[in-house]
Amino acid sequence: MSQLLEILSPVGDMERLHAALDYGADAVYLGGTAFGMRAASAKFTPELLAEACSLAHSKGKRVYLTCNTLPRNSEIPAFEGFVKDAAAAGVDALIITDLGLLALAKKFVPDMEIHISTQAGIVNYATANEFYSMGAKRVVLARELTLEEVAEIRAKTPTELDIECFVHGAMCVSFSGRCLLSQYLTNRDANRGECAQPCRWGYHLMEEKRPDEFYPIFEDEQGTFILNAKDMCLIEHLDKLAKAGVNSFKIEGRAKSSYYVSVITNAYRKAMDIYKAAPENYQLPQWLKDEVFKVSHRAYCTGFFFGHPKESQYYENSGYVREYDVVAIIDHCENGRIYAQQRNKFNLGDEVEVLSPEGEPVTFTVNEMFNDKGESIETANHAAMDLSITSDLVFPRNSIIRIKK
Length: 405
Known about the structure:
Blueprint: E1 6-10, H1 14-22, E2 27-31, H2 46-58, E3 62-67, H3 76-89, E4 93-96, H4 99-108, E5 113-116, H5 125-133, E6 138-140, H6 147-155, E7 162-170, H7 181-186, E8 231-233, H8 238-244, E9 248-251, H9 258-277, H10 286-291, E10 300-301, E11 324-334, E12 337-342, E13 346-347, E14 351-355, E15 362-365, E16 369-371, E17 376-377, E18 379-380, E19 386-390, E20 400-404
Parallel strand pairs: 1-2, 1-9, 2-3, 3-4, 4-5, 5-6, 6-7, 7-9, 8-10
Antiparallel strand pairs: 7-8, 11-12, 11-20, 12-19, 13-18, 14-15, 14-20, 16-17, 16-19
Helix pairs in contact: 1-9, 2-3, 3-4, 6-8
């Protein structure tokens, strides 16, 4: 049996679901209206969930539903209806942290595939094996493992147990998301999907006596972002993870934009296809390496995979690097025109870049542009306006027109 190598993308709503599927995800994970770790992106009612599953299945893709909070007593009675609705909608697997929910899921939906969330903190093969014996089909390993530890877990667990690892996106300063800062400071519980991200805030440290000045405890007059973790990016190392036995390559970001989902899914899809074509000679073209920098991101690192991440914190600020803006989404191309809907202002003479699922980005200059009445215009400055651009280039629906800032 060939090794499963799955690109798993985050989905916060139907727009992002289309983005993930259009740009090459093998599977998506999303949240219902309860029990998920991203309360702000809990968009999928039972009806929407059924629609999402139908769309994904029509394209041969899978849907995983997050049930990875630590629920309180009052929430337990609602779980039976929640998971039965999920099963009826066609969900392919539940992502679970809590042992009680695991037991209830096996009782209420015994045929449902179970994935154990990274929130469970799996860092050794004994724990992975125990979850397998309890009925799990997959374990999502903690982010804090080295590549060698991942490989040992793979070697000492049944081949029927899938191994999933995060490969891209935000990291947490606490252990696999088990953080109390938000609850202490804002009464928003990170373990119930309500994190206010106080690790991204600036802090001033004051020491009472400081008799010896061995270590400065300030960054500058603005304070220090001492808890601010860099983002993870492993696109250049997918070959190493695959050879260590990873089956599912997970992109973080259910609260991120559809543009982020499109670009990062596309990048990892194409990188995985390159690996599959030549496993012993994994080399990415420069344009593909550049793609991960064309979304809003923090400084990148490789997490714990290659040892202690000495450079994993970024102390200067908690903001994002954002070098590109989406200016339009393509609807269709015909008769020498690109028909699109505006997202941000752009003008005649601008050099734009189009990203589609079909290849590397294509650059061209906007030399002629029209509004929806066919009138020539010099600028697209009305929100969501329909427009067309003269061009013989042809791109599929939902291709992205972007511009370097």
